[in-house]
Structures are given as structure tokens and as C-alpha cells.
Amino acid sequence: MTSEAQLSQQQRHLLERWLPGAEVVRDHSWGLVGTVVLELRHNAVRYIAKAGDGKDHHLARELRAHRNWLQPWTSRGRAPGLVYADADAKLLVTRYLPGELVQGNDREGDPDTYRQAGRLLALLHEQLSVEDDEFEEGENANTLAWLNRPHRIAPDVAARLRETVESWPTPTSTLVPTHGDWQPRNWLVHKGTVSAIDFGRADLRPAFTDFVQLATRQFRSDRRLEDAFLDGYGRDPREPAAWRRTRIRYAIGTAAWAYQVGDESFEEEGHRLIAEVLAEG
What we know:
- By secondary structure, the chain is an alpha+beta fold.
- Helices cover about 45% and strands about 20% of the residues.
- It is built from eleven helices and eleven strands.
- A five-stranded antiparallel sheet has the order 1-2-3-5-4, with helices on both faces.
- Helix 10 runs antiparallel to helix 11 (about 265-280).
- The longest helix has 22 residues, at about 240-260.
- The N and C termini lie far apart (about 50 Å).
- InterPro entries: Aminoglycoside_PTrfase, Kinase-like_dom_sf.
- It comes from Actinopolymorpha cephalotaxi.
């Protein structure tokens, strides 16, 4: 079944109403989750349509980001602008943003890419901040929930992780608008300029949570990339204790989520991250 065929009847009717006779140019769907991503052409203009299935909760986050937080990027042409949306149908359409994915591109190893990405992220984070007394408690509960679901974390390791999480304090957190998956897979480069896509994990979180994917991959392989990113961002918000809690949560979530969707290489990365952070004591 093609991704286009997986759209609900309501989603197909909405697309036909919004962009009558639009041609599907390319299917950008991942296939691991129920989100359909289609590149469309209508009256010589290209668009991206994103549709969620019945289990989806990312489209609501993406729509919230478009409506509330992306103006610092869209006003500069550094993120796709929202054109149509229907929250109940779990469907949105944005303008097509030209460019190539940074992941797998020569620009993935270029410090200037990370300097630009740091500047972009600072624009997002600097819009607003709120103090939250319940964020850490909620994150701890979410992490314990991952450990209660099916996974392949060794029982003794899972027990140690559970004990560790249950011992954590729950201090007040400063939350800002975050992308939620800030890494080269969600950056485009066009004529040397880096832009951002995919806001399905956007939410209010501590700023440093947007550093975690980069820290587990690109930063560990090339210190120049981390230095350039911090230069662009303007500071390093990673307070050691909170940063360690975030890394452990990310490692557990990675191993458990990847197991559930059958992504074995990503699952292995989660297990490696768990071993590394536990080895630190």
C-alpha cells in the first residue's frame, strides 16, 4: 500500500478541497510510524502534506509549533510556512522548503552548518521562558513508564535504572519552546543556508534537551562541531546534574521505543548510551 493510499477518507477530501488536482511528487514518509509525508505540486507550486493516523500525537505538536513558535524562523525563510491545517483530521499542509537534508550530505561535517544551527536554535529558545514545578516529576514518570513497557534492557540494568530515576530530585525547571529532535536529519541546506523542518516533537522543555541528539552522535565524533554549535547558540545551558538526567532518560526512551518499532540499529544505540552513562557512576 502506498503512503497516499493510507490517508483517511477525510484527509483525502480535505487535500482535494485545499489543493484540487494536486500531483504527488515524492513520498517522504519514514514507514516506521503512522505519519504520511507527501510532497505535492499544485498550480506549479510545491507543498508538503503531513497526515497522522489514529494513534498519532505528533501532528498536534507540529500544529502548535506552527501557530505559536515558528515565526522567528518562518519570517526569515528558515522553516516552512503553514498553509492549511485541520487538527481533528490530523492533517496539515506547508509550503515546500527547498534544500537537501544535511544528514548524509557533505555539510554534515562542516562546522559552519552547526554554527548556523546553533543560531537558529537560539532564536527559537529566546522567544519565551516559563518556570515549571512539575516538569521533572513528569519526565521521571515517563521514563519509568518506558521501563514498564516491553524492551530488551537487561533486568539487572533496568533495575539499576529504575532505582536511579526514583532517587532523582524534582527541582523547578525553566522551559522554552524546543524542537525536540534537533539534528541533521531535520535540517535542510540550500545555497549554503541551513533551515529547519519536522516539528512533531516540539514542546516546552529545558533548552538543553535540544542538545541531546547532537551530543550522542555528531559532537562525540568531532569536537569542532560542538564548538561551532555553541558559538552560534551563544552559551552552553547544560547544567551537569540536569544534563545527566536528560541523557539517561533519552537512552532509556531510545532503547525502548526502537524495540517497539523494530529499529534494531537505533535500539543498539540506546543500549550503548545506557552503558556509557551508567559507567560514569
